[in-house]
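We modelled the chain as a single entity of 161 amino acids. Its sequence is:
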Amino acid sequence: MALSTYFGGDPMFGQLERAMDRAFERALGGRGGDVMAAFMPTLTGPSGAGGHPMDIIETKDAFELHTDAPGFTPDDISVQMHEGVLTISGNRKEERVEKDGDKVVRRERHFSQFSRSFTLPDNVKEEGISASLDKGVLRVSVPKTEPAPKPEPKRITVTGA
């Protein structure tokens, strides 16, 4: 099972979005392209789910999530796991001040942030998740484990009255 984007506990959002896409495609004769992206680019644009582009690579042993984080330090980035949802976020503030003696000549402020959440499948090992930041690229590794066996259906005996 693959990772899926987390929409804040509202499983109907993805279904609604797909249904609207199908309706627009039917109405426009299949020539509509990604109509939802035109109306709601922050939710459905190239970065998906409202923010920061992430590459998700599934290997035999793990899921790998890669994203660009130029200028961020490890202290600026947070990777959290809570109730099966992996959240990756970054928050960076930078202020540059150029002075000429006591006089401020120029002051620039820059603020960058991102956040993405993913619902993890059952076959991941939560305690083995690791993250590294190297040359502006954040890599998060989520190791896989053997999925727990699904219980066999239990037959319930129906008795007469």
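As a brief sanity check on the tokenised model: Residues 23 and 29 are 10 Å apart (CA to CA). The chain is about 15% helix and 40% strand.
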